[in-house]
Amino acid sequence: MENNILKGIKNIVFDFGCVLVNLDRHKCIEALERIGAGEIAHYVDECKQIDMFLDLELGKIGEKEFCDEIRHRAPGCTATDKEICEAWGELLTDIPVRRLKLVEKLHKDYNIYLLSNSNSVHWNKSVDLFFSKAGHAPQYYFDKMFISYNMGMVKPDPRIFETLIRESGIKPEETLFIDDSQANCRAAEEFGIRTLHVADGDEWADILPSVATIGFFDGVHRGHRYLIDQVKEVAAQHGLQSMVVTFDKHPREVLHSDYMPQMLSTLEEKVARIDGTGVDRCAVLPFNEETASLSAYDFMKTVLKERLGVEYLVIGYDNRFGHNRTEGFEDYVRYGKELGIEVIRAKAFVLNGVNVSSSVVRSFLSEGEVEMAHMCLGYSYSLTGKVVDGVKEGRRMGFPTANISTEGMTKLIPARGAYAVWATLGDGSRYPAMMNIGVRPTFNGTATTLEVHILDYSGDLYGSELTVEFVKRLRGEQKFESEKALMRQLEKDSEETRKCLSSADAR
């Protein structure tokens, strides 16, 4: 993406769906099927802008007529108007607050408009739920909003762009239009409007100059968050976007075919924790052979400068990037001067005389030191997996366990032993629990299992997802002389778990 796309621009026009608001077709289809309207699900699946969906978007019919038509086309649907509208509204999932913050930032220097093919159901949900969550009404972000159901026309109809230009008083040559539809972009270009076609709602953020840092950020531990705080400070000083640049895969996964991941976080967990720092943007880049082949200079030039618009790069104390990772901080400074990127060395986060790093956290977990790992991470380490059938030895002894599958698990499994943990079920309910990691030596087992006994719970968890948060290691793995001896120890483990989690909860 050209970083000069805003040159000469005074007005920015945003599309809504897939640019500001996230969509989930499958979630909508499932909702329609639940209310007996599966017959019309193909409209959503195939993105058909026809019939009652188009009429609602054009404002030709209201919500009542729309719902009547749904029931007519799906005779098995007896849902109320409210239920149908709620199911149709499931197409929209959220507007990330960070996107609205970036729109707010742009609004300081540009006139901002909204031009959307939308209907009253979706727009009302967005106003009532998504914008209110961000703390401001839509009028706060946009100088004027052009929404199809109020206008009686939809993109790419040329008339909708004629109306936009006439009623806003903007000059096409001073205007940037951002949309996820190529057809809509082509229609805007016919009027001399500059366009930016994006496939994803985060891509357009590349138009803003930024202060960035780069790394894999596995676990997003306290050291990472200290670094990100420094990025945010520099960004605030210069009035720029703060950004974390990371990768979807660990470099070793690409460079070494036999590499077995021992991660501290999944990609989804990592992105969520980065977003939770309050940084303006998290840019997740694909790490592949092409990426691996780039020199540090080429990466800074083509990715950081030309694509992401980075003006300041904050480098972690131990950060090295580029092919073969042979260059260091002074090299990055020299390249930056040539490219127009100021490179800043970040201060390290030191805990008890140790620079906190992902490798330090991994070493603690590998030794079962989950409390030390917690200190470094700033949160409890966790594992999530599907509950599968086990050998039911625990049930026979009065300690039924949920067995978490390790299939496909890329996160590091802590050292063998018994742990006090919090167990979170699929419905979000949280219970005290004790967990054993090991091969069940008392029963002459050979395969490593993850067994969780949830205190004060009875129910069938097979097939559901279970998350455990590690609080304390109770003991190492032991082989007991008999089942009775094991049962006596499990009773002690249970008592210690209750005490441990009670005090942990109190803190």
Describe, in short, the structure shown:
This protein is of the alpha/beta class. It is about 40% helix and about 20% strand.
Keywords:
single chain, 507 residues, alpha/beta, Rossmann fold, DNA polymerase, domain 1, 4 domains
Largest sheet: 6 strands, antiparallel, barrel
Low-confidence parts, pLDDT < 50 over ≥5 residues? none
Q: What is the CATH architecture assignment of the largest domain? A: 3-Layer(aba) Sandwich
Total number of helices = 21
Number of domains: 4
Strand line-up in the sheet with most strands: 15-16-19-18-17-20
- Assess the beta-strand content as a share of residues: 15-25%
* Cα Rg: 27 Å
Shape: flat
CATH superfamily of the largest domain: HUPs
Query: What average pLDDT do the residues reach?
Result: 91
CATH fold-level assignment of the largest domain: Rossmann fold
For the termini, the CA-CA separation is 48 Å
- Count every beta strand, where a strand is a DSSP E run of 2 or more residues: 20
What structural class should be given to the helix and strand makeup? alpha/beta
CATH class of the largest domain: Alpha Beta
> Helical proportion?
25-40%
Structural description of this entry:
This protein is α/β, with parallel strands linked by helices. It folds into 4 domains: 11-21 and 93-205, Rossmann fold; 25-90, Putative phosphatase, domain 2 (DNA polymerase, domain 1, Orthogonal Bundle); 209-351, HUPs (Rossmann fold, 3-Layer(aba) Sandwich); 380-506, Elongation Factor Tu (Ef-tu), domain 3. The strands form 5 sheets. Strands 15-16-19-18-17-20 form a 6-stranded antiparallel β-barrel. A 5-stranded parallel sheet has the order 5-4-1-6-7, sandwiched between helices. The chain has a 5-stranded parallel sheet with strand order 10-9-8-11-12, sandwiched between helices. It is flat.
